[in-house]
Amino acid sequence: MTSQATTPPTSAAAAPSAPSAPMALQGVRVLDLSRVLAGPWCSQTLADLGADVIKVERPPSAGHPGGDDTRGWGPPYLKDTEGGDTSEAAYYLGANRNKRSIAIDIAQPQGQALIRELAAQSDVLLENYKVGDLARYGLDAPALLALNPRLVFCSVTGFGQSGPYSDRAGYDYAVQGLGGLMSVTGERDALPGGGPQKVGVAVADLFTGMYATVAILAALRHRDATGQGQVIDMALLDTQVAMLANLGANYLCTGQAPRRMGNAHQNIVPYQTFQATDGHLIVAVGNDRQFAKFCEILGHPDWAQDARFATNAQRVRHRDVLVPLLAECIATQPRQHWLTAMEAAKVPGGAINDLAEVFDDPQVHHRGMVVPMDHPLTDRLRLVGSPMKLSATPVAYRLPPPLLGQHTEAILAELGHTADTIAAWRQQGVIA
């Protein structure tokens, strides 16, 4: 990595450029004091829907580069116009578009005053500080709701604002383990490679960000109806437990903890990967009719009439007999042979793509899931697009992920502060 200090341009635009169509959250201001992933994922979703998100970051100081920790979580880093590394990590870029960055030191009284000033003019405040940290600065929910009773104050922590674990730091990996996900993820213990396995992306963080988004939108609707803000207490562990979904229900109905099944399904057979002559494919049979069609494709229509396999319940009970029969047959032909036949017969399944293949896929291109954006440091920025497709209020990609403190002066000017005052605060280290 080539470390580069990023001096914010003094002529940064004061506000996001106007989209060509109305946006669902246009006029909503979000003061985002969160960092890393769960909080920023939430605020990026709100920003994609039109909210003006002001990302509050730590100014650079001795021993700390400043900003969201993920700015330095690389490689990989964004490439500049010459192909060299910039200071912006891909991790940070993936969760921070459509936001404006202001760098404020909230440890200083004047920094705290600026946060209060911004909160008084915001609809939502999002934060992921440890429980009690913001209270030390007078920036906790009771203090800010007293200042702005219409504020929706959303806290994201590992374990919530109460309970025996509330003081613990929360990390996605640990929560995947503690919350049960790793007990049902990975190959079966008795097979080669068996044992606990985390999911390949930080799903506890991401799901918490999405649940937080839903909660904030619900709170805004309540606020608009009643004039009252409220506090939202989001916890990674709560989310992890909730997102076990049918597996959690399986346990509560039976008292038996589900175990790891590798690429197989707990409740459906056949619903797993199989090895063809040239690689793996997915078979996702969802009902008995699809199973009968699949048996015809395999040249064994009699399997669908076998009492052991005729219904899904029987297939689950006899999976150790059925799956080897299917595997032996599928192993005789290449993947595309089976995928073409399955598509024609409307039997669900698919290829297993790496990300190069994903982003080269014509359907992914058609759906606009790769978004090029202008960036102050490069013309090479491409981001993963939003999956939200709204007919009347579409997502707009207005701003690239901001440089650290890129919009500090513009945001403070919006609050009515003069250039001389802003310069003095910068000299004192209150802002950057």
Descriptive overview:
With 432 residues, the chain is an alpha/beta fold. It folds into two domains: 29-242 and 362-428, Rossmann fold; 271-354, formyl-coa transferase, domain 3, CATH 3.30.1540.10. 34% of the residues lie in helices and 14% in strands. It has 16 helices and 13 strands. The protein has helices at residues 38-48, 90-93, 109-120, 141-147, 172-178, 203-226, 236-242, 245-254, 288-298, 312-317, 319-330, 335-344, 355-358, 362-366, 408-414, 419-428; strands at residues 29-33, 52-57, 77-79, 85-89, 99-103, 124-127, 152-157, 230-235, 271-276, 279-284, 349-351, 370-372, 382-384. The protein has a six-stranded parallel sheet, sandwiched between helices. Strands 9-10-11 form a three-stranded antiparallel sheet, with helices on one face. Strand 9 (271-276) and strand 10 (279-284) form a beta hairpin. The longest helix is centred in the middle third of the chain and has 24 residues, at 203-226. The chain is elongated. The protein starts with 28 loop residues before the first strand and ends with a helix.
